[in-house]
From TrEMBL:
PROSITE patterns named among the record's database cross-references: AP2_ERF (PS51032)
SMART domains (alphabetical): AP2
One Pfam family here: AP2
Naturally occurring in which organism (per UniProt): Devosia elaeis
Domain of life: Bacteria
Keyword field: DNA-binding, Transcription, Transcription regulation
Protein name: AP2/ERF domain-containing protein
Positions of region (Disordered): 152-178
Transmembrane segments: none
Length: 287
């Protein structure tokens, strides 16, 4: 007889202590995640992927309290993998347009505590490198990626995963080490150059640069501490200036640097709107 575990306490762990669980929204009975685990895994929200967390939090914000329940208990890990894979296939994954689940894979992977040996990792890398020599296969994968990232939800999810990954200094170091000394192919260099040329010719790049300058705070070399303000030694006053369409507009000389900064702020709002950096945003807005 197999042992049934208590998810709340994690007691009763043995060789057959795995289970397969499902998360569903109780109002519609729609299942949005299938997982496999043991102990209290099903109830540990933060171990789930960002897509799952986004759906879970949206439901909570809408007043819907998602519930989790076990589909099967008292399983070996192999049995749990088999049921997890079957259930994911039955409900379908939302990120590939085939169902309701927020799972990012088809399941059946990630054996608990298993680490691939270095020799296995090297062998897998060589196999993948060999596969990528096939132009037809690369084209198929590329088309699949383009279709995948056409979905705004998918792009947002990928961005969140990437952001989370790069919060880890060790992950950043590994990525950097992998790229050091790796030569770029001529096709890659030309593709990047072509994309930059197109953005520049369309005016998009120039607009982004100008927007960045307008929104930027005063530089480190600015001794006044206020954007658009400098000291005029000849008059002994503070000079206010602003750049508009590559031309410098003089905004007068003032007795104090604060008065000059306010003159800059007024001009910045007039020419660039609320996106412009302002030296006294709170004070002037209140006025």
């Amino acid at each position: 007889m197999t042992k049934v575990i208590d998810q709340k306490t994690g007691q009763g762990c043995g060789k057959k202590d795995f289970y397969v669980y499902a998360w569903e929204r109780p109002d519609t009975k729609e299942v949005f995640y299938i997982g496999k685990g043991r102990g209290v895994r099903a109830h540990r929200l933060k171990i789930h992927n960002p897509f799952f967390m986004r759906v879970y939090e949206r439901l909570k914000n809408d007043g819907v309290d998602p519930r989790v329940y076990n589909i099967a208990e008292g399983l070996s890990e192999v049995e749990a993998f088999e049921i997890e894979t079957r259930e994911i296939a039955r409900f379908g994954r939302r990120n590939i347009g085939k169902g309701t689940l927020t799972n990012l894979t088809d399941g059946g992977e990630g054996s608990s505590g298993f680490v691939f040996p270095a020799t296995r990792k090297k062998k897998m890398s060589l196999i993948m490198t060999e596969r990528l020599q096939d132009e037809e296969l690369r084209a198929v994968w590329s088309a699949a990626q383009v279709k995948r990232y056409a979905d705004p939800e998918q792009r947002k999810m990928a961005s969140e995963i990437s952001t989370q990954r790069y919060k880890d200094p060790e992950a950043r170091r590994r990525q950097s080490d992998a790229l050091i000394g790796r030569p770029k192919t001529p096709e890659h260099v030309e593709a990047v150059a072509s994309a930059l040329r197109q953005r520049w010719e369309s005016g998009e790049m120039g607009a982004l640069i100008r927007a960045g300058i307008v929104a930027a705070p005063p530089g480190k070399a600015n001794s006044s501490g206020y954007k658009g303000v400098s000291f005029d030694k000849q008059s002994g006053k503070w000079l206010a200036q602003i750049q508009v369409e590559k031309k410098t507009k003089h905004l007068g000389r003032h007795l104090t640097r604060e008065a000059a900064a306010e003159a800059y702020d007024r001009a910045a709002r007039m020419y660039f709107g609320d996106n412009a950096y302002q030296n006294f945003p709170v004070t002037l807005d209140a006025a």
